[in-house]
Structures are given as structure tokens and as C-alpha cells.
């Protein structure tokens, strides 16, 4: 007897995707049920695209028209047209309205059906009429999570090893870096490359200032990426703050052992938030974590811009279970922490970063069921 996995599709697609990945075997088919076609029909496509099967898979769908999810007999008739006594159904009751879920269970109980519910963010499957839950073994990659929200992305390569980045961090914390050189170098972040000697000796303009002491600065930090007196765009970005992103990237790998982790993620999603960059993105416990790294938060305006951007991205494209941290090397400010918390963002200051064990423990706890 063939098996069909049934999904009720609504705003959050991750529970649908996880159930299919957990239960699917070659030869199974998929049946999607949703309402309001203009809003949710596309989400069926997102799930199928994210699944990316390398073998044939029969898929079908039942779409209730707008308002139709409140008409019991009409929904029942549409469902019955799709069902067969020759199949076994594994029905995921997660998703949709409560009324739709009741209808789906009522109809499928007439057939050879098994029912399940995923109480996301918990990684388990609840079976009706059973006290014990079933552990959800499947774990999402960053790409799978984002694909379920119709987001494509690219990422940067890690430039330096963990040991070098940690040494850079230590120099920053002890105040042993030439911060004036770093600040002036920010003006060149969009340049493909610069000649160190030329930048040191040029007259300079307001847009591209002369940077006296640049060669000495690069030599003092033993920057391994520099060659032949040239700094390319990636190296400039590293020296002006990218090193802190890599520091957090390496620490997450060391302390958290995530399912998947990416650095410098450029996401492309909805038109409203067409393109955004995220510093460190990783999945752990089937939750998505985003860490935005700032070597300093200068003024309330900069803080507000950073928090509003993080909040907008989270609400628009990252889903309910995503958790965002803004991590700054500025000194502690309880007012800023409260403001961020009220907007669903966790703000961490220099003191939190220096107490790394406590910070990483907080992330591990958030990743648990």
C-alpha cells in the first residue's frame, strides 16, 4: 500500500518540511492542503523547492478558496475527491486554522490514517491518544531553513584562522590597535583594492583621506592576507570590523557545534527586504540564529538603526523561531538592552562578550527544545 504524507500549509512552513523529511521514503507521495490561494499556494512551492528530491515524487494539493476554510461541507467535499482507500496517510495536523485541522482529522479518520503534531520549537512529534512523544531526529541546514521562506543567499569565505582572529580580538580589547588608522580605512571599504603606499602619501580628500601609518599598522598586526603592499576589498572589510564577525563565527563553532553555520550571508527575499546582509547565521536545534556584530555602537541613532533593521528582517523573512543577537564591543548600557529586548532582539555588550562562557550557555539553552 502506497503512503501519502499530508501537510496543512499556513504561514510557518518549517513544521511541514520537518515532518516530510522525517517520514518520507522513496515512493511516497505528498498532499498539501491550504486556504487563501494568493497567500499560501506559493508556500507549497517553497516547501517542494526546499525538499529538492533527486527522485520522482508525486505531489498534489487541495486549495480552499478565500473564506472557504470556514465552510465545513465544502472543505469536506474537496478533500474526499482526493482520497483513496488504496493509500495509507500520514497526516501532519500542524498548520492551518484550528477549524481546518478539525476538518482534516474528521475526514482522514475514515481512511487508513495516522496523525501527528509538531509543537515547534520543540523537536518532537506528538501522536494523538499517546502520552509519549517521538523525537524528531532531522536537523535543518541554514540553506534549508531560508529556502522554506523563499530566500536565496550567498556567503563569504572565512579569511583567517581562529587563532589569528582571537589575537586580533585581544589587541582590540587591550587598546593596542591604531584605531585612527582603522577609522580612516573605513572610507575605502567599497574599493576593489588599494595600494598602501599610495594611500599613505596621497594628499587625501574628504571622501578618500590619506592614512599615515597604514603600513606600520598592517606590519604590527602581522596581517597574513596582505601581499605586495596591496589590500583588497575583503581585507579592508576584515580590518575595519570583519575580524569581529569571524571571531564570533569561530567561537560559535567551538562552543555550540551548530548543525550548520555561515559567515557574511547576503539574503534575497521579498521585494520590501530585497537584499540584506547578516554577519553570522547558524542553525542549532532546528532554530535559526542570527548574530549581528558591531565593534562599537556609536550613539543612540546608530543603535536604533541596527535594532530596527534586525527586527524588520526577523519579522519579514526569518520566521517565528529565529533568534537574533546584536553583539557590540561598546561598554554595557542597560537602557539599550531593554530597548532591544522590547523589540524581540537580544543586545550584548563588551562585558557579555568577555564573559563568553555565559553568553554561549545562553545560546545553547535557546537551542534546546
What's the short version?
This protein has 369 residues and is an alpha/beta fold. It is 42% helix and 22% strand.
Global structural class: alpha/beta
User: At the fourth CATH level, what is the homologous superfamily of the largest domain?
Assistant: Hypothetical protein VC1899 like domain (Restriction endonuclease-like)
CATH architecture assignment name of the largest domain: 3-Layer(aba) Sandwich
Provide the gyration radius in Å.
25 Å
User: On the 0-100 scale, what is the average pLDDT?
Assistant: 89
> What global shape is seen?
elongated
* Sheet with most strands: strand arrangement: 8-11-12-13-14-15
Question: Main β-sheet: number of strands, strand sense, barrel status?
Answer: 6 strands, mixed
What's the multimeric state? single chain
Q: According to CATH, what is the class of the largest domain?
A: Alpha Beta
Q: Spell the H/E element sequence.
A: EHEHEHEHEEEHEHHEHHEHEEEHEHEHH
Number of helices in the DSSP assignment: 14
How much of the sequence is in beta strands?
15-25%
**What is the total number of structural domains?**
3
In total, the number of strands is 15
Which residues sit in consecutive blocks of at least 5 with pLDDT less than 50? none
Distance between the termini: 35 Å
CATH topology of the largest domain: Rossmann fold
Task: Estimate percent helicity.
Answer: 40-55%
Amino acid at each position: 500500500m502506497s503512503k501519502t504524507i499530508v501537510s496543512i500549509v499556513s504561514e510557518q512552513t518549517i513544521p511541514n518540511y520537518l515532518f516530510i523529511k522525517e517520514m518520507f521514503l522513496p515512493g511516497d507521495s505528498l498532499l498539501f492542503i491550504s486556504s487563501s490561494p494568493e497567500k499560501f499556494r506559493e508556500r507549497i512551492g517553497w516547501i517542494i523547492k526546499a525538499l529538492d528530491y533527486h527522485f520522482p515524487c508525486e505531489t498534489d494539493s487541495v486549495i480552499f478558496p478565500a473564506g472557504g476554510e470556514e465552510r465545513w461541507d465544502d472543505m469536506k467535499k474537496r478533500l474526499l475527491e482526493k482520497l483513496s482507500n488504496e493509500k495509507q496517510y500520514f497526516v501532519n495536523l500542524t498548520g492551518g486554522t484550528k477549524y481546518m485541522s478539525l476538518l482534516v482529522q474528521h475526514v482522514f479518520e475514515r481512511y487508513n490514517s495516522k496523525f501527528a503534531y509538531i509543537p515547534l520549537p520543540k523537536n518532537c512529534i506528538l501522536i494523538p491518544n499517546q502520552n509519549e512523544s517521538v523525537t524528531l531526529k532531522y536537523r535543518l541546514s541554514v540553506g534549508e531553513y531560508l529556502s522554506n521562506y523563499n530566500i536565496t543567499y550567498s556567503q563569504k569565505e572565512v579569511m583567517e584562522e581562529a587563532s589569528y582572529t582571537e589575537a586580533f580580538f585581544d589587541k582590540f580589547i587591550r587598546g593596542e590597535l591604531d584605531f585612527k588608522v582603522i577609522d580612516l580605512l573605513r572610507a575605502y571599504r567599497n574599493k576593489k583594492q588599494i595600494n598602501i603606499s599610495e594611500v599613505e602619501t596621497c594628499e587625501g580628500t574628504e571622501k578618500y583621506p590619506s592614512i599615515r601609518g597604514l603600513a606600520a599598522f598592517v606590519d604590527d598586526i602581522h596581517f597574513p592576507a596582505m601581499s605586495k603592499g596591496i589590500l583588497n576589498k575583503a581585507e579592508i572589510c576584515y580590518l575595519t570590523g570583519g575580524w569581529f564577525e569571524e571571531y564570533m563565527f569561530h567561537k560559535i563553532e567551538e562552543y555550540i557545534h551548530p548543525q550548520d553555520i555561515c559567515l557574511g550571508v547576503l539574503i534575497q527575499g521579498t521585494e520590501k527586504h530585497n537584499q540584506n546582509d547578516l554577519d553570522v547565521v547558524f542553525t542549532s536545534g532546528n532554530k535559526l540564529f542570527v548574530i549581528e556584530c558591531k565593534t562599537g555602537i556609536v550613539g543612540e541613532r546608530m543603535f536604533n538603526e541596527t535594532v530596527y533593521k534586525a527586527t524588520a528582517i526577523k519579522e519579514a523573512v526569518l520566521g517565528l523561531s529565529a533568534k537574533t543577537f546584536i553583539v557590540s564591543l561598546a561598554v554595557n548600557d542597560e537602557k539599550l538592552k531593554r530597548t532591544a529586548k522590547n523589540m524581540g532582539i537580544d543586545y550584548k555588550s563588551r562585558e557579555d562578550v568577555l564573559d563568553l562562557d555565559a553568553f554561549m550557555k545562553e545560546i545553547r539553552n535557546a537551542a534546546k527544545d
